[in-house]
Amino acid sequence: MRSTAPGCAHSSMHEQASAPTSSSSPAPKKRLDTVVKLALSVFVGSFALIWGGMYLSRPDRSIPPYSVGSQNGHLVATHVPPATTDQQIETLLNRFRKVGHQTHDFGPMKIRPTTPEDPGGRYRQVLIYVFDDDGWTDPEVLAKYVAGDAAVAKEFEKSVRGYYWLRDQDEEGGIGPLPKPGMISDATRVLFKGRVTDPLPVETESEQDKSISPL
Question: Do the beta carbons of residue 149 and residue 141 sit within 8 Å?
């Protein structure tokens, strides 16, 4: 019977002991495929684009929600929800006033140029009516009012919740219908009347009503 030499047995045991160590070494990390990288970039970019769009188009909660129902020349008929209070309408009128003072550009307020061919400005004259019934902002109704339909005009003016009137450098705004020239109306509370070059009151600039947002 052949015997194994002590040196050989020791060498064999050493090889067996060292074998698991060599097999357990970490495998090199596989680099991401180019297509995978491209897909991840597109995903991240799309998410950032959507988030940025939502941030930029977020509702302005400092004014009540309103929509422009129709526009006829310099006359603009807007409507707000029926539950809108006078205080919230006042906040909206103050925003129109602020635009008249600072930029004279009502485009961001959803209003098309009222005097597009006037070299003095695209919004040199604008009269904005605010209703809480969108029926009065229908283009046909506004056209009849402009044409002087007496029956329509009477109910139209009675239904106005507020107005903002800009004539070059002069402005006026109030709760209720626009008063007739030279007349004082009990149905109207004039909020401001003057020139757009006058300084804005502090309370107008602060616009503290944060309850609802524009449409």
Answer: no
